[in-house]
Amino acid sequence: MGLRRLARHSLRQTCPAVLAAVVLIVLSVQSNAHMPSVTISPETPTDADSLRIDVGGWFFDGCWSFQGVECGSPEDGAIVIDVFTRDDWRPGYVCVQWVVPYCCSCSYGPLPPGHYVITVIEHHDSLVDPEPETAVLEFDVVPESAIRELSWARIRALYR
Fold first, then answer.
1. Whose CA is closest to 53, among 65, 64, 41, 62?
2. Residue 141: exposed, middle, or buried by beta-carbon count in 10 A (0-12, 13-18, 19+)?
3. pLDDT digits 0-9 by tens, 75-126
4. Considering only CA atoms, which of 125, 118, 144 is closest in space to residue 54?
């Protein structure tokens, strides 16, 4: 019985160490960038609302840094946001393995009703991962009058 208890105790100490080593190995071999995420606020904008677009992402080592953002003007239903990042890794240099998050926002006044496509391009100044990452989000701006016309009575009538 003492041998079984010793084996269980040894496994409890070994498993977390092995798991941590596997996680570090996986983080070091996977891509250095994480696809940026894009959200809008409010979630269902009207033509009377100001719109805020939040962009966020992260990198898997400490050599990366966020350099800035350019918020493009809405043109024909398209909004392009350019995010600039830099990787300071060079041959012979070791980067600390930790997550480096970033977030930024672009604000727009009320937009006319219609369908919009946000394209976020995360540009990489990097020897290891020079290819840009892209994220796309589509949404509609509805007339404020269409929202006001929905009363509780009309909504209930839809489900009867």
1. 41
2. buried
3. 999 999 999 999 999 999 999 999 999 999 999 999 999 999 999 999 999 9
4. 118
